[in-house]
Write a structure and sequence with these properties.
single chain; about 950 residues; alpha/beta; Rossmann fold; 7-stranded mixed sheet; 6-stranded parallel sheet; binds iron/sulfur cluster
Length: about 950
């Protein structure tokens, strides 16, 4: 190697050797009378690239596109030629209509649904896919329904019935399922439509149907049919590497890819896997991190991926298409609050950037209101008035959403229409809504997604003759299904490496190939016979996935081909998965084992960026202006103590995690209900004498009144009122029971008390901070000393009051700094937890309250010797926390891992990256965080 580069001579030699393997085939495709039919699209594309390379080496700059087509595309081309030849007479000459996969699946579903009473099924759509495959297998293996006579398994009988109905329907409507295309072509094609020579490239086996088509039909019409496969490389070297797990395996493969490309940038690298769809997402993520490390620091087009993964995703998973579906659902019906939130945050709507903050505020506002779902008119109102919070109003989206809702055709939504007509309604609705947005330019991947979405809408038109007129709900389901079933992958720039399934890889040659995931469960693939055909027949006919023996034999051929399709082949497997040991595939167990290459070197970001990277730790925010009141009251001290960054983010950046709407009031709201009901109770009852004067009946009556008032106040106005009423009825019972138990406990208090403060606002001076606090309750005891009480609906313990970073410093704050209350004799949690209602208190004298302890009786290791000394210790700790907050201390430093569990700021503080993802999960598994 010279200067880190691969010697030119070796590169040329290697390219030449690979090219030689294709030479004979490529030489012949320049002949216009020759057609190459490939087993899949990947091989066709690859041969086109090789051909262009060959012509360039030969010094050509212009050439005719060679005739290389994947098999399915060629058959469809022949059919189109027939349609064009017969033109308007096509129907007259009995040319049937070729069904695409969506139409065919819908037709099967219709047949199954029409006979639900005879063969009831929960999911006709799922059954339709299996039945369609069974019908296709029969045609491809040149078998008929008569061959199934005598087999009376329920699924086989159902299939025979549905298939007969489907055949009759196709005959009546003049439909041609794609699995019958070759048979139909065989009776219609003529020599002028055919090449003189046809080369079948990359086929390991042909179905009996295609065997007959090529070697009987075409040869009878004078076509010379040949087969071609890339030769095995005699000097190929293969080795096997065990890895600790999938992530390690993918990392090893990608780091090896990176090193190989650095060594030889022109190399053609393959990564193959028996289960590519299952690993596609982690592979995609890691490929950016390892092959394009600079993408973290520079804007890159997502379509310009470093690894071309031959596993598309459903179109509906792509954000632009996802948001189009979402927009339609919101225009045409109720939507959950989570969907409303996603709609509001969409960048594919007009003003998505300009109004982003308002829309985010509205999302947070709607979640806080506790709504589960919204109707379109409710959402339109919320867009106008910000759901009662003016800064959250969204005038631009209001205008566009209003325009979409007020369109004339909204009046006709109850009609049934053909899918093509619904496609028009959907398209116009999205246009009025302003999808795909107007305040930023789409990147290449988004452009392609928008185009694919348009094709999806057009495909609805093809469903007209299959489904007939349908209602809005069905039409939206059809569109959703088309978007779900459309396997989509945006074209990008020329990727440096290719990832593909094993069958795809087996037809090609590479400069280097890494095969991941070679465990015995995945390769050979386990048998998976079709449930609608008799198993004995599938085995007898040697259908795919019918038996373990067939799969093993087939996989052996493929494996042998893969191990000799590149000068160097690496096979890897994971030795375990979540503590479950895994075994290497027996088909590669003979290979020499090697350890994964030590690859301590990080991806060379600086080399890609062309500039040195600097890093620095930023734990210091600007100092807080002490003239201002401290934000957040006592919660600020808790956050500062739990984690300085949490306090900075929550109280200076005002960052909060969004609430997750659930069914019914969440724990926070239920806690508020209990607080408010007790607040009302004590405003009327006032003291221990007032409580003692109530007999059981009177006490219950007062509780019922207080709870009723609180719940009446909380009733939502507008569309959710009926639902809230039902929910609060349930809540009423819970609260009455809770308050009854709690007040029974208060009746046990030996020392008389007067409730002198409820929701008491105080301003506390803590070091440099002015802190506004609101105390749940202050009781004045017999000696005129104050007891501060804080209600808690969860488990609580005074253990969190002690130490240099107290986990729960709220009551220490009140006890130590609420000087205007006079002498304070103690602090108490009022634990309002159903079944566990009690005080948890520390006082100067333990008999003041049930559950109270004198400080000296407690075992907390960090407590002071006396109550007065403890108050001073709390002052010192809290002033230190106040100083740290005011100075801008903002280190990501959780007091313990469990502090992060319910914090919700992980995406902002990136604590997982700081700790390392593995360390974080280990802590949780140890139970440390629970
Ligand atoms: S998630 Fe953890 S580290 Fe991050 S701010 Fe919250 S407590 Fe601190």
């Amino acid at each position: 190697m010279e200067n880190g580069q691969y010697p030119i001579a070796r590169k040329v030699a290697r390219a030449q050797r690979i090219m030689n393997a294709y030479q004979a085939l490529l030489q012949s495709v320049g002949d216009t009378q020759t057609l190459v039919v490939t087993v899949n699209r990947r091989l066709a594309r690859h041969l086109h690239e090789r051909y262009a390379q060959m012509r360039q080496i030969q010094g050509d700059s212009v050439w005719e596109t060679p005739r290389i087509l994947p098999q399915n595309a060629w058959l469809e081309t022949l059919w189109r030629e027939l349609e064009e030849r017969d033109g308007i007479q096509a129907q007259a000459v009995g040319l049937p209509l070729l069904l695409n996969a969506s139409r065919e699946s819908l037709a099967w579903e219709g047949v199954i649904a029409a006979h639900q009473s005879r063969y009831p099924l929960l999911k006709p759509a799922v059954a339709a896919r299996g039945v369609m495959r069974a019908w296709g297998l029969l045609r491809q293996w040149r078998r008929s329904l008569d061959d199934l006579t005598g087999y009376d398994e329920p699924d086989v009988l159902a299939f025979r019935f549905w298939a007969a109905e489907f055949d009759a329907l196709c005959a009546e409507r003049g439909w041609l399922p794609s699995a019958a295309l070759a048979d139909e072509l065989a009776g219609r094609i003529t020599p002028p439509m055919l090449p003189k020579r046809l080369i079948l490239a990359g086929f390991d086996q042909l179905t009996p149907q295609m065997q007959g088509f090529y070697f009987e039909t075409l040869t009878a019409l004078g076509v010379v049919v040949e087969t071609w496969r890339a030769d095995a490389l005699a000097d190929a070297q293969a080795r096997c590497i065990p890895c600790s797990g999938l992530e390690a395996e993918l990392r090893a493969a990608l780091q090896w890819t990176r090193r190989t490309l650095l060594d030889n940038p022109a190399a053609r690298i393959g990564i193959a896997a028996p289960n590519l769809p299952a690993i596609a997402e982690p592979l995609r993520r890691l490929s950016w991190e390892i092959l394009r490390p600079h993408s973290r620091y520079e804007g890159v087009d997502p379509a310009d991926a470093p690894l071309n993964i031959s596993a598309g995703r459903p179109l509906s998973d792509y954000p632009a298409a996802h948001d189009a579906l979402l927009g339609l659902r919101l225009c045409f019906g109720d939507a959950s609050i989570a969907r409303v939130g996603a709609f509001l945050r969409s960048p594919f709507l007009p003003g998505g950037l300009r109004e982003a903050e308002r829309r985010a505020l509205l999302d947070a506002r709607l979640r806080r209101l506790g709504r589960r779902a919204m109707r379109p008119d409710g959402l339109l109102r919320a867009l106008s008035d910000g759901a009662g919070f003016a800064p959250a109003s969204c005038p631009q989206l209001h205008e566009r959403f209003g325009a979409a809702l007020q369109a004339e055709e909204m009046g006709g939504l109850r009609q049934t229409r053909r899918p093509s007509a619904w496609a028009g309604v959907f398209s116009r609705t999205l246009a009025r809504l302003g999808w795909p947005g107007d305040d930023r330019s789409l990147d290449s991947a988004e452009h392609q997604t928008v185009t694919a979405w348009g094709q999806c809408l057009s495909a609805m038109g093809a469903l007209d003759d299959v489904s007939g007129a349908v209602d809005l709900h069905t039409a939206l389901s059809q569109l959703t299904r088309l978007a779900n079933e459309r396997d989509f992958q945006p074209d990008g720039g020329l990727a440096q490496a290719q990832a593909m399934g094993l069958l795809e890889a087996a037809g090609e040659q590479f400069d280097a190939l890494w095969i991941v995931g070679m465990i015995d469960e995945a390769w050979p693939p386990p048998p998976d016979p079709n449930p609608y055909l008799p198993l004995t027949l599938q085995r007898q006919w040697e259908m795919p996935r019918a038996s373990a023996a067939r799969e093993r034999d087939y996989a052996e051929v493929i494996t042998q081909r893969l191990l000799t399709c590149a000068p160097q082949v690496v096979v890897s497997w994971s030795v375990s998965e979540e503590d479950r040991p895994l075994r290497v595939s027996p088909l590669v167990a003979h290979l020499a084992l090697e350890d994964a290459d030590a690859d301590a070197d990080a991806p060379d970001v600086e080399r890609y960026l062309g500039a040195p990277l600097e890093s620095f730790e930023d734990m210091q925010a600007p100092a807080f202006d002490a003239q201002l009141n401290a934000p957040g009251g006592a919660g600020l001290f808790q956050s500062q103590s739990q984690c300085p960054f949490q306090a900075f983010a929550r109280y200076r950046l005002r960052a909060e995690s969004l609430e997750e709407p659930g069914s019914g009031p969440d724990a926070r709201r239920r806690g508020q209900f209990a607080h408010r009901a007790l607040d009302r109770f004590w405003r009327v009852t006032r003291d221990s004498a007032g409580l003692a004067a109530l007999n059981d009946v009177a006490l219950l009556e007062r509780i019922v009144v207080c709870v009723g008032e609180v719940l009446a106040e909380s009733l939502e106005s507008g569309e959710d009122a009926a639902w809230w009423e039902a929910v609060t009825d349930l809540e009423r019972g819970r609260l009455i029971h809770l308050l009854r138990n709690w007040l029974d406990g208060e009746r046990q208090r030996m020392e008389p008390f007067t409730v002198t403060g409820l929701e008491l606002p105080l301003t506390l001076q803590v070091g440099p901070l002015n802190v506004r606090a609101r105390l749940d309750r202050v009781d004045r005891l017999d000696g005129d000393e104050a007891l501060v009480i804080d209600y808690k609906t969860g488990l609580s313990s005074p253990a969190g009051w002690f130490g240099p970073r107290p986990a729960d410093p709220q009551l220490p704050l009140y006890a130590a700094f609420a000087h205007e209350l006079g002498p304070i004799c103690g602090a108490a949690f009022g634990q309002l937890r159903p079944g566990n209602e009690r005080f948890q208190a520390i006082l100067t004298h333990s008999d003041a309250i049930p559950g109270g302890k004198a400080l000296e009786q407690t075992q907390y290791s960090e407590r002071a010797e006396s109550w007065q000394a403890q108050l001073q210790a709390w002052r010192d700790v809290l002033i230190r926390l106040a100083d740290a907050f005011a100075s801008g201390a903002a280190a990501v430093d959780p007091i313990k891992p469990s502090a992060c569990l319910y914090c919700g700021l992980q995406t902002l503080c990136r604590v997982d990256q700081l700790r390392g993802a593995d360390a974080a999960s280990a802590e949780q598994e140890d139970g440390d965080g629970v």
